TrEMBL record:
This is Uncharacterized protein. Residues 64-333 form the KIB1-4 beta-propeller domain. Residues 3-39 form the F-box domain. Transmembrane segments: none annotated. Pfam families: Beta-prop_KIB1-4, F-box-like. InterPro entries: F-box-like_dom_sf (IPR036047), F-box_dom (IPR001810), KIB1-4_b-propeller (IPR005174), Quinoprotein_ADH-like_sf (IPR011047).
Amino acid sequence: MDWSTLPADLVRLVAGHLHDPLDFLHLRAVCRSWRSAAASTPPPPFLPWLLARPTAHPTSSLSFFSLASGAARSVPAPSSSHRLLGPTRSHLLFSDTSHRLLLLNPLTGARLPLPDSPFPTSSPVIQGYHIPTAADGDSPAPVVLYSARKLFFHFDFMAGGEPTTKPVDRDGWTEVPVQDLVAENMYHDGKLFVCDDRGQVTIFDASTLAVVGAVPPPPPPAAPPRRDAFKCTALVPSGHELLCVIRYFARDGHGELLEDCGAWLEVYRLEMEIEKEDQLPQWRWIRLRSIGDRMLFIGLFQGFSFSTADFPGFKGDCIYFFKMERVKRSCIYRFSMEDGRTEELPGPWMHACTWFVPSLS
């Protein structure tokens, strides 16, 4: 059979069901007619990959695991001198030894220019992320850098960034006036949500840096999973909603944060109530018993949300997470909000770092 004679509509139909970007690239490479048919329609949304924790030794590649195909992937690293600060929906954020920053799409090799880090070279470990502008184009999203005590963001690293009248630290970085330790944070819908080590969330307007609200932590469970358990909060943008997923952990016999405490996952949605026009709105976390057709992919502190409408054959109302419980193996689990059951999925033999959403853009 001459595969090049396959109707273009059928090629596009097949391409729309490929949820691993390398499979999509392989389809486009079959022949000229297939490449033309696939190029006439946007790539389908891709499921996240699991990103391996970089080793302490110089490495020339980055290791991933594809949940869609069950295959290990490897792509070139920028250099052995770059340290991974965090993943985004399409790029990885790196810093070199001189605190120069780099946003890299590891699939395409595309790089986005960034100003140097506002943190001094002697600062402790910093983390960061960038969430690209949503498809509806409501507002551009910044690059965010943070340590346990400071948080900076930068809008204008690309053309089209927001003009700013905010106090600027240097090279266009804006410092957020956080008063307490920064445990987690998330930029969402023009606001920065900064969670301290007590679970209290302070909400900043990203345009003015004014505090527009504060949210107490969700209530603790009636019966904690175990006496020494403590919780980790993952903030997850989902459309115009901000979700909070809580997992409970305990340390193993060596003091490592490796073991979670059973199927204790709780999901909350942030809601705003305006009581009086001259007062700040009241914010609160609302416990969700169902997340509908959504799938949440949760790391330790952040996560991603997808709709099963984009992934035929996948079940919604589920949370995917991972933990390391065997030597060099990261086990992937799927928690069902519907019946509270947790099942183990095929996982890679690697120390996972977090989820990464691949993109060909």
